[in-house]
Amino acid sequence: MKIGFVGLGHMGAPMARNLLKAGHSLVVYDVVQRNVDALKAAGAAAAQSAARAADAAELVITMLPSSPHVKTVYLGMTGFWRALRPT
């Protein structure tokens, strides 16, 4: 299963690393490029937006700091809603 992971800060990065260690395939996105680069070096694929992370995955996990960030990631111009598809 390919997992999209958005939010690679203090909590998200360790969680994403644990998923990689457990053998999961990750596509990651964060607004801080060095956070994405660190996970890419650990074996994750990088996405250019939250929507692209969602589009490339079967399941998406977000670890975001506050409500405005959640709203942007889910509903913003490059948010998940652009990647939604029927199940």
Order of helices and strands: EHEHEHEH
Give the helix/strand class.
alpha/beta
Low-confidence stretches: none
Helix content: 25-40%
Principal-axes shape call:
globular
Radius of gyration, Cα only, in angstroms?
12 Å
Please state roughly what percent of the residues sit in beta strands, choosing from under 5%, 5-15%, 15-25%, 25-35%, 35-45% or over 45%.
Answer: 15-25%
| Strand count | 4
Strand order of the largest sheet: 3-2-1-4
Walk me through this protein's architecture.
The chain has 87 residues and is α/β, with parallel strands linked by helices. It is 39% helix and 18% strand. The protein has helices at 12-21, 33-41, 50-55, 67-75, and strands at residues 2-6, 25-29, 45-46, 59-62. Strand 1, helix 1 (12-21) and strand 2 (25-29) form a beta-alpha-beta unit. It is globular, with a radius of gyration of 12 Å. The model has no long low-confidence stretch (mean pLDDT 92).
Structure summarized in a few sentences:
The protein has 87 residues and is α/β, with parallel strands linked by helices.
Q: What are the main properties of this structure?
A:
87 residues, 39% helix, alpha/beta, 4 helices
How is this fold's topology laid out?
Layout: E1 2-6, H1 12-21, E2 25-29, H2 33-41, E3 45-46, H3 50-55, E4 59-62, H4 67-75
Parallel strand pairs: 1-2, 1-4, 2-3
